[in-house]
Amino acid sequence: MKRGLMTVREDSTPGPMQESQPSQARRDEKSPGHTGGVHPDMQMAESSAVGAQPHDRALQRQIPVAAAEHLNHPSGSSMQSGSRHMQIGASRPQLVAVTVFSSLMLLAGMTLPAAFFNLRLTAEEVGGAIMPPGMIMTQETSAAAMLDMAAVDPRQVTANYGLDRHGARVLEPRVENGVKVFDLETSVIRWQILPAISVNAFAYNGQVPGPTLRFRQGDRVRINLTNRLPDSTTVHWHGLILPNVMDGPAKITQAPIENGQSYSYEFTAVQSGTYFYHSHDHVDRQQAVGLYGALLIDPANPADEIAADHDYTIQLQEWLVRDGLTYPAMPMEGGMPNYFTINGRAYPSTDTIKMKVGETVKIRFIGSSSGFIHPMHIHGGPFLVVARDGETLAPGARFKADSINVGPGQRYDVIWTALKAGKWMIHCHISHHTTNNNAEQQGGGGLMMDIDVADDPKI
């Protein structure tokens, strides 16, 4: 007899065993106290079968057989019997292969990142820096590089300015013993460039760009800088002839100005023209997030000035803003800008120059951007290029154009004449640079502004 459940088949034709069962049942009925060697559980199962359907009775007859089998075999034998039905499907070689493969994958997961990323960096070195999305970080990426490319920490913002506050405002000096003195202070601010967009910026005197410093050729000037940034900084006076110790490059001509420290730059202006100043410590970071400003030096002889009816300075910059964080824009993967500003504003929040037909305007283009070239174009007719990098061009060297490439650090002075009434655009001719986060608003964005020319009633 097989171990396990015994199934009694109910055939339509009774066999010898089936014929004997009724008589056995009758003998049992005559002797209620007699068990006939049958286990009590079997009796209970037999009695519960009364009135059951044929297939139910067949199932119930299986139960006592299983119970009897349980009594006849010890527990160890039963486990051995069950083990025959629970055999492991994997062979020993298969188990070894899975183990080896899993070990190799674990080892690869622990070692492969070291081939692509610098796992030697510690949390203390990077200081919780947040890197821009998409930035490629290699094994050679140092902690210093990460800190320069990281987002400006919003927790370090000390002031918040809206569209009612303008950058590049002229800073009036005070005079001390014949020296014109300007005071600059760096800090971290939140600066609005569009109605719904603000950037976290490094700023001089709470504005982007920093204040315009204007003085005359031959003036003795002193600029006092107080640093309130979380990083050290210095100032470079771009294009000026001055004592080397006043030039500004950190760790080269001077020690970096640490947080809370001050430094005084003093020199005599021996040139005239359009110049600018900017940070020269962590330059790719600090200049890219706002540390720059115009430096305009009028000629000692006013007759040497190329006159115009209007004078307007354009300072160009790029921004990278993602998920509310501001990163220094850089020409590299993950660092490409998505906002662009003229004097700290993106179109349509940029200024409008108001003129009349026949008037002229001197546009001073300053490449205050630290990593991008901008071909600047003016609608409504050509302009005359009269100066480059602060140097006035001789009359025979001046030329007409309608677009000029303004690279980082370059300056061009151009004279534009209003020939026709209407709204004439000034804009970068790289189309992406005239969008706001890749989209146009009111016909454009970014590096765009209008010249609104009205008819002159006298003409």
Account of the protein in words:
With 459 residues, this protein is of the alpha+beta class. It has three domains: 16-74, no CATH class; 153-304, Immunoglobulin-like (Sandwich), CATH 2.60.40; 306-459, Cupredoxins -  blue copper proteins (Immunoglobulin-like). The chain has eight helices and 23 strands. The strands form four sheets. Strands 11, 12, 13, 15, 17, 18, 19 and 21 form an eight-stranded mixed sheet that branches. Strands 1, 2, 3, 4, 6 and 8 form a six-stranded mixed sheet that branches. It has a five-stranded mixed sheet with strand order 14-23-22-16-20, with no helix packed on it. Helix 2 (40-48) packs antiparallel against helix 3 (54-72). Residues 1-83 have low confidence and may be disordered.
**Which homologous superfamily in CATH is the superfamily of the largest domain?**
Cupredoxins -  blue copper proteins
Please give the domain count.
Answer: 3
Mean pLDDT: 84
Could you tell me the CATH topology label of the largest domain.
Immunoglobulin-like
Question: Spans of 5+ residues with little confidence (pLDDT < 50)?
Answer: 1-83
Helical percent range? Answer: 10-25%
Rg to the nearest angstrom? 44 Å
Largest sheet: 8 strands, mixed
Tally of strands:
23
CATH architecture of the largest domain: Sandwich
Structural class: alpha+beta
Strand content: 25-35%
Shape: globular
Give the class-level CATH name of the largest domain: Mainly Beta
Amino-to-carboxy terminus distance: 124 Å
How many DSSP H or I helices? 8
